[in-house]
Amino acid sequence: MDFSFGAEDGELRARARAWLTGHLVGPYADAVGLGGPGSEHEEVPARRAWERELGRGGWIGQGWDAPDGAYGQRRLSLTGQVVWAEEYAALRAPGRVGHIGENLLAPTLLAYGSREQQGRFLPGIARGEELWCQGYSEPGAGSDLAAVRTRAVRDRADGRYRVTGQKIWTSLAGDADWCFVLARTEPGSRRHRGLSFLLVRMDQPGRVEVRPIRQMSGTSEFNEVYFDGAEADGAVGAEGDGWTVAMGLLALERGVSTLVQQIGFAAELERVLAAYAASAEAGDPVLRERLVRQWAELRTMRWNALRTLGDGGGPGAPSVAKLLWGGWHKRLGELAVAVRGAAATAGPAPWAPGLPYERGLDEGQRLFLFTRADTIYGGSDEIQRNIIAERVLGLPKESR
């Protein structure tokens, strides 16, 4: 695959840089470098407003399989999307709060949804006005998603579903306007059968309750969500075909978004290298070797992601990508504290009563604590290895 940048990409880079520089002013300037995994609590109102600013500029939905401008978005090539992501990362623009709607739900609606659903939901996502969260995992149904027990009953009077159950580890649920929910719509069904992919409005007092989950870092990106007869607008795809839609969404999650993620990883690695150079541990040959390996592995992941964009990567590509970046990011978190030596055990501010815990952590410490979960959430390493072994390599299935 030829993934070199052309003249058009150079022109786009200049336009993107000029647009970002001209718009990262006022309250948006205060949010520069803030937000993102492990720091989703930072400057949320400003980042929600920034999402709408991106929408007005047409920068949301660049990779959608839809005509240019169909929903107010500009359609960019793969290289164009990477150019935008690189400029966004270089200027440390605010962490996106619309990622789940733009990169997960929207491509799924374009692939499986009705025209009515596309017309109803895609414009709001493209304008940055409606935020989404993902209702997949449950207690007892995390990596084993087929064990979902949340149920939904279709009302014969109005055709709407009533959803009852619990979801957990739901990112950004406290700020989301909508949630796409995998629920069991066929009574008595088991495993992959009888599931439907439903769209649920979050603002339903008494029917939807969000409870934040406090993490080791002191923040609460993740939440428990309780549904008690919550109304759902309808199923994406056919009723009972939710497993196909849900797995299709996970496959669509990779691609350019993986490259965007790696740009953020590269910036984090640069900061860890700078901390190493300024610390008493500088020159330690073991740490130096670990840092060089970390750099080389990131380059390998980039080339693997580019290859996957070119040929699709095959059925195991999403699992390979998750296995690679989960372990890499966790090791980076470990390096973030290792390069500082004993100083990493002390916070930059005293952990005194009344002081929010997260304010007593510096960036490296937050990175270390947050990345402990990278090999677990989104499908644990063990599950990813099983998928690769059974579905790609054809090895015997694990006994259950």
From TrEMBL:
Residues 240-393 form the Acyl-CoA dehydrogenase/oxidase C-terminal domain. Residues 133-228 form the Acyl-CoA oxidase/dehydrogenase middle domain. SUPFAM superfamilies: Acyl-CoA dehydrogenase C-terminal domain-like, Acyl-CoA dehydrogenase NM domain-like. Its cofactor is FAD. One of its GO terms (cellular component) is plasma membrane. It holds the Pfam family Acyl-CoA_dh_N. The keyword Flavoprotein applies. Keywords: FAD, Flavoprotein, Oxidoreductase. It comes from the Bacteria. InterPro entries: Acyl-CoA_Oxase/DH_mid-dom (IPR006091), Acyl-CoA_Oxase/DH_mid-dom_sf (IPR046373), AcylCo_DH-like_C (IPR036250), AcylCo_DH/oxidase_C (IPR009075), AcylCoA_DH/ox_N (IPR013786), AcylCoA_DH/ox_N_sf (IPR037069), AcylCoA_DH/oxidase_NM_dom_sf (IPR009100), Mycobact_Acyl-CoA_DH (IPR052161). GO terms for molecular function: flavin adenine dinucleotide binding; oxidoreductase activity, acting on the CH-CH group of donors. Transmembrane segments: none annotated. Residues 9-129 form the Acyl-CoA dehydrogenase/oxidase N-terminal domain. The keyword Oxidoreductase applies. Belongs to the acyl-CoA dehydrogenase family. This is Acyl-CoA dehydrogenase.
